[in-house]
């Protein structure tokens, strides 16, 4: 009886560890980094360590196999959640950038020149300059003799999506 209780307590502790690790992963990737950076390493851990070990233990220790499979499921679910949040933020960022792009194009139509900065669009063309998403707090706008671009960081710290006003197309820096 006591042995069974000890096993149950040990399994609960393992469950708490797994859940805590998953929440830390979710916090780091979805909130701090804003992209599935650590999730890549956890996916490798699942594929290279957890699942092979679980398969091995199916034949030797079913309890251990069940624990490893449940860890793999929890981590996989967390990775899926991180990726869904990331994809959602990409979508929101692009939508908000397109609002600013339309405002800059309207400014150009009215004034036959691009605005010097995004603040020139407020309050006539935009009520406020939108933030792309909770991770990328700023849209960047450059207007020089050579180029007029609007960009935001899609995958921190690199992969900047750029709208080229003079070419009317999206591009990617780095």
What does this structure look like?
By secondary structure, this protein is α+β, with helices and mostly antiparallel strands. The protein has 2 domains: 2-88; 90-173. It is 61% helix and 14% strand. It has 3 helices and 4 strands, in the order αααββββ. It has a 4-stranded antiparallel beta sheet with strand order 1-2-3-4, covered by helices on one side. α2 (37-60) runs antiparallel to α3. The termini are far apart. The mean pLDDT is 82.
Question: Keyphrases for this structure?
Answer:
single chain, 174 residues, alpha+beta, 2 domains
Topology:
Blueprint: H1 2-33, H2 37-60, H3 62-111, E1 140-143, E2 148-155, E3 158-164, E4 169-173
Antiparallel strand pairs: 1-2, 2-3, 3-4
Helix pairs in contact: 1-3, 2-3
Write a compact overview of the structure shown.
The chain is an alpha+beta fold and 174 residues long. It has three helices and four strands; from the N terminus they run H-H-H-E-E-E-E. 61% of the residues lie in helices and 14% in strands.
